[in-house]
Automatic annotation (TrEMBL):
CDD domains in alphabetical order: PCBER_SDR_a, SRPBCC_4
Gene3D superfamilies, per database record: 3.30.530.20, NAD(P)-binding Rossmann-like Domain, UDP-galactose 4-epimerase, domain 1
Cited Pfam families: NmrA (PF05368)
GO molecular function, one term: oxidoreductase activity
InterPro entries from the UniProt entry: NAD(P)-bd_dom_sf, NmrA-like, NmrA/Isoflavone_reductase-like, PCBER-like, START-like_dom_sf
NmrA-like domain mapped to chain residues: 264-366
Descriptive protein name: Isoflavone reductase homolog IRL
């Protein structure tokens, strides 16, 4: 057996890396004209649900080769498939996601992503390091330098053990030769750009030179996400030049004169809303920010004192641009009643106004988790949304916080299942599924802390926490990991009521979810609430982003909260007649 093994350490939990890797639909966008063109399941099944024995449809070799490998394993720690050319060789691709302990207290867990290619069969020796490296000219081109890669070969009777870091040519006539190996990187990225055979145009990884604007303009369309994402080796359309990515970061010392390393002026849409108000109040509390509320002309929403308010027409781009000019960041918090085209209009105006960073209207469940993103609800547009933000040259951060606790507790039986005035609770399944939930106050603190950080580290020695850590990626927080029965227990403690005074029923989360989808088809807004909440309560861990992703609470120094205190706040909201659609007081 001959083996090619590559590995990379990634500053993200294994669940994050695995989910990104299994987003097969997005893989071709990382390398639009590259070696891998298409991967999908032969049967209609999301990648996360693939099992041993399932077949994949793969198109590689720049669209010239089609094959149908068979999945061997799909677990949290390993994904593998086997493909073959009958009688010549069989190749197994193994991708393992290993957890690495944090190197410093307070740092998140890391992942070691290992990609292993194992070859057996008559001509398998061609796939080993010796023959393949010589045939492709990799050793000869090590001296010319095109691309950094980890390349190791396992012991065998045909090759000696080896483990070294080398520079390899994958350009010109040799473009794409086994370019799938060592092709996955996650984190802040630095570009090494190469043109032609052996001609090094710009190499920011060791020359210290900046990549010129013309070169950057040429390669930018090939890079979907220069800060966070799963990337393969990228090729230009003529396959004579290549772009590779190496883990690194950007620093203040590299920025042009006049660069400000702080987010100071913030515009917010929805400053008087459910989550917008606590965010605005916390931003004002820091004393570091000036906050401008953009309100719809004719709106009666009350914004917190200390906020400058500008009435705008969302259909008038020029007025939006004028209102946003001079601001560093735009926060968008829209109600479910807002027309769908409002956010795109705001983002277009933000780009025209020179906004640097956006927190889009994504507040809640883990939209990065494919089973939720593909569940037929409104989470599926997230990828297109953030791709549009990046295409406009802005950065983004989404707050993944789970459902808002107080709001959801009093929202009605379609949400957490509670009908508080009637003392009735409808449990999803047995009511013991735990999901991540955040209080409105915690959401406000998280956003305020995030936007109070320096934007970039000063230089390579600066290890302070910066906003760049979450540029073009979500920040994950949570106040509590709760089941519906946990919520009921807190309510009983706060009110002094007994369980006997409540009517408790059970329904399947699947059934409630399907019923919600049917109501949505009929235009009933209550169906969206029912489908969203019941879907997150599926007893498969989809609502537990803490286990899957890890939390950023400690990094942001968010406090531990008292569940019963926030249940009291929910009770006070209920006593005031809180209603999301008509009365949010």
């Amino acid at each position: 057996m001959y083996t090619i093994t590559t590995s990379v350490e990634i500053a993200a939990p294994p669940g994050v890396v695995r989910d990104k890797f299994l987003d097969f639909a997005a893989l071709p966008t990382y390398s639009p004209s590259g070696f891998i063109r298409h991967i999908s399941s032969v049967i209609d099944k999301p990648p996360t649900h693939l099992q041993a024995g399932d077949r994949l449809n793969c198109t590689v070799n720049y669209g010239k080769t089609h094959f149908t490998p068979i999945v061997q394993a799909n677990t949290p720690a390993l994904f593998s498939w086997v493909g073959s050319i009958p009688g010549i060789f069989t190749g197994e691709h193994r991708f393992s996601f290993g957890s690495i302990d944090a190197d410093q207290p307070g740092k998140p867990y890391r992942t070691r992503l290992v990609h292993e290619e194992r070859f057996t069969g008559l001509l398998s020796f061609l796939m080993g390091q010796g023959m393949l490296a010589n045939a492709a000219g990799w050793r000869e081109n090590t001296r010319q330098g095109n691309l950094r890669i980890d390349f190791t070969s396992s012991p065998s009777k045909h090759s000696k053990p080896a483990a070294h870091r080398t520079w390899m040519r994958i350009a010109g006539s040799q473009a794409g030769v086994h370019s799938s190996m060592a092709c996955f990187f996650l984190g802040n990225l630095r570009v090494t750009y190469l043109r032609g055979i052996g001609e090094k145009v710009a190499d920011s990884s060791n020359s210290g030179r900046r990549i010129d604007a013309e070169t950057m303009a040429e390669i930018t369309p090939l890079i979907p996400d220069r800060s966070y994402g799963l990337h393969s080796i990228l090729y230009s359309k003529d396959r004579k030049s290549s772009v590779s990515f190496v883990m690194t970061g950007e620093y203040v010392k590299d920025q042009p004169a006049g660069f400000s390393n702080r987010i100071q002026r913030i515009a917010i849409v929805g400053a008087g809303g459910t989550v917008g108000r606590p965010i605005t109040e916390e931003l004002l509390r820091t004393g570091q920010h000036s906050v401008t509320a953009l309100t719809r002309i004719g709106s009666t929403s009350q914004v917190p004192s200390g906020v400058q308010s500008i009435a705008v027409d969302y259909d008038d781009e020029a007025s939006l641009v004028r209102a946003l000019q001079g601001h560093d960041c735009l926060i968008i918090s829209l109600s479910v009643q807002t027309p769908r085209d409002t956010q795109p209009k705001l983002l277009q105006a933000a780009s025209q106004a020179g906004i640097r960073h956006v927190m889009p209207n994504v507040w809640g469940c883990d939209v990065m988790h494919p089973p939720l993103a593909d569940s037929g609800l409104n989470w599926g547009g997230f990828r297109e949304l953030v791709a549009g933000i990046e295409a406009k040259g802005m950065g983004w951060t989404a707050l993944i916080c789970g459902f808002w606790y107080e709001h959801s507790l009093v929202l009605g039986p379609s949400a957490f299942g509670f009908d508080l005035p009637a003392k009735k609770l409808i449990l999803n399944d047995d009511g013991n599924t735990k999901i991540n939930i955040s209080t409105l106050a915690q959401c406000g603190r998280a956003v305020s802390t995030l936007l109070s950080l320096p934007v970039l580290p000063e230089d390579e020695q600066d290890d302070q926490l910066t906003l760049s850590r979450w540029r073009n990626k979500p920040v994950y927080i949570s106040s509590f990991l709760l089941s519906q029965r946990d919520m009921l227990a807190s309510w009983l403690r706060v009110t002094g009521e007994t369980a006997d005074s409540w009517t408790i029923e059970q329904e399947s989360s699947q059934g409630r979810y399907e019923r919600g989808l049917e109501l949505m088809k009929k235009g009933d807004h209550a169906g969206l609430v029912l489908a969203m909440y019941s879907r997150v309560f599926f007893p498969n861990g989809d609502g537990n982003h803490e286990q899957r992703r890890g939390l950023d609470n400690d990094l942001l120094r968010l406090p531990t909260e008292d569940l019963d205190e926030h249940t009291r706040q929910a009770k006070a909201m209920s006593d005031r007649g809180y209603n999301y659609m008509t009365n949010r007081n």
